[in-house]
Design brief:
By secondary structure, this protein is α+β, with helices and mostly antiparallel strands. The protein is built from 14 helices and 24 strands. The strands form seven sheets. It has a five-stranded parallel β-sheet with strand order 3-2-1-4-5, with helices on both faces. A five-stranded antiparallel β-sheet has the order 12-15-18-23-20. The chain has a four-stranded antiparallel β-sheet with strand order 6-9-7-8, sandwiched between helices. Strand 16 (266-275) and strand 17 (278-285) form a beta hairpin. The longest helix is centred in the middle third of the chain and has 21 residues, at 239-259. The chain is globular. The two termini are 38 Å apart.
């Protein structure tokens, strides 16, 4: 059996690793892949944004399953192209992927479907956005509506900060097309929770809740990033909370997308804020999130390949369930010098010897002129440790991440600090 994974980051490395564990005879092809994925399968130098090139590759290779990792090709309609070519693909259509590619669309859909979320005002000019910010008061959240690599959300503590963020997006074009439409959103107080669900459009298979760390610096300070680490499980993500989220968030959202003529199948990711009024949706993603995927998949004891195939080939998920380890996983991201604004590429890397119960997923690596391992992106590695206690997983993840030799590297050593304060590393019962 052959599977094609579209993408070349840490999420795709984790997907390849898990699918190969599920079926060791599986032939993995990745486009474009990375040096870590190359150790598991065959990488083909076709960009994930090259829709025609990816479809030609799949038409030639005829994989039994395609998994699309990044959001940009989903938004560009890659899954539609595969379906038109008769190739089984796990990933939503372009129309359904608007749940991520347009925050304005997602907000309007939630409002109509009665899905709990913060109030927001859509704006396309700076003057109206500033009026909306004054209406909500500070703190206030300014969001680029389009795809901004996880960096298009700015929490503003003062009105001056809000006006600067608005001008940056709508006047200075700092986020390009993604920021030419913005949402001015009321601030929600609480902790965030990432909840993934595999879905065929009707049946929902929720995955283990995780929590990521968006800020660059320890103590959740500094600029927003694509994610500096994640951990799972999260004690706040109880079975009751997950069931409630399925009933009040996932099902009505899927129903609304189907009613809008855009049925969703694939991985629907709800970023939830656990407020005093209950969980509310911060945003949706239309694919596996990064770096949460690198923390969640090592804890999945049942097959990932089987439900992905069931969704891709249309046989459905009825009667299926996922089984999870009772251990803890902590993922520490190692980022390049200059990340997130201007990450330095081409810096040599030396990895420590492989450690038991620690997985080093390549996220932004490439080959230098002499074949040596070098940086090729902002987030370079996602280092996941699995252990019986949270504290052990935290310490091992941070230790191995610290041992990676990379000039100017950036990493946080406080991943899962909130959970540590709650649980003190007690084994799960």
């Amino acid at each position: 059996m052959r599977a094609l994974i579209v993408g070349g980051g840490g999420r795709e490395h984790a997907l390849a690793w898990k699918l190969l564990r599920d079926q060791p005879s599986l032939e993995i092809i990745a486009a474009p892949g990375n040096p870590g994925i190359a150790a598991l399968g065959r990488c083909v130098p076709v960009s994930s944004d090259d829709i025609a090139g990816i479809v030609r590759l799949a038409t030639s290779e005829r994989p039994q399953l395609v998994v699309i990792g990044p959001e940009a090709p989903l938004a560009a309609g890659l899954a539609d192209s595969f379906r038109a070519a008769g190739i089984a693909v796990f990933g939503p259509s372009r129309a359904a992927a608007r749940i991520e590619s347009s925050k304005a669309f997602a907000k309007a859909l939630m409002r109509e479907a009665g899905v709990p979320t913060a109030r927001a005002i859509r704006c396309v000019d700076a003057a109206s956005a500033k009026r909306a910010a004054r209406e909500y008061g500070v703190p206030v959240v300014i969001k680029a509506s389009g795809l901004a690599a996880g960096k298009g959300v700015i929490v503003c503590e003062t009105m001056i900060d809000a006006e600067r963020a608005i001008d940056s997006m709508l006047t200075d074009d700092s986020f390009g097309a993604a920021g030419r439409e913005v949402l001015v959103e009321e601030f929600m107080e609480g902790e965030e929770l990432s909840l993934f669900a595999i879905t065929d459009g009707t049946t929902v298979l929720p995955m283990l809740p995780a929590q990521d760390h968006k800020r660059l610096l320890e103590g959740d300070r500094g600029p927003n990033t694509g994610g500096m680490g994640a951990y799972a499980p999260v004690s706040l993500g109880t079975g009751a909370l997950v069931s409630d989220a399925v009933d009040r968030v996932f099902v009505p959202t899927l129903d609304a997308l189907r009613a809008a003529g855009a049925p969703f199948s694939g991985l629907l990711y709800a970023g939830l804020m656990l407020t005093s009024q209950g969980p509310k949706v911060v945003e949706f993603n239309a694919r596996f999130g990064d770096p949460e995927t690198e923390a969640i998949l090592p804890l999945l004891e049942s097959s990932l390949l089987e439900p992905l195939l069931a969704v891709a080939n249309g046989s459905g998920l009825a009667g299926r369930e996922l089984k999870w380890s009772r251990e803890f996983a902590v993922t520490t991201v190692v980022a390049a010098d200059g990340y997130p604004d201007k990450p330095r590429k081409g810096t040599p890397i030396k990895l420590p010897p492989q450690q038991p119960n620690v997985l080093v997923f390549h996220a932004g690596t490439g080959a230098g002129a002499n074949g040596e391992l070098v940086t090729a992106g902002g987030r370079v590695f996602a280092v996941t440790a699995v252990a019986h206690t949270l504290e052990r997983a935290r310490s091992e993840s941070a230790r191995v991440a610290s041992e990676i030799e990379l000039e100017g590297k950036q990493l946080r050593r406080d991943i899962a600090w909130r959970e540590q304060e709650r649980s003190a590393g007690a084994p799960r019962n």
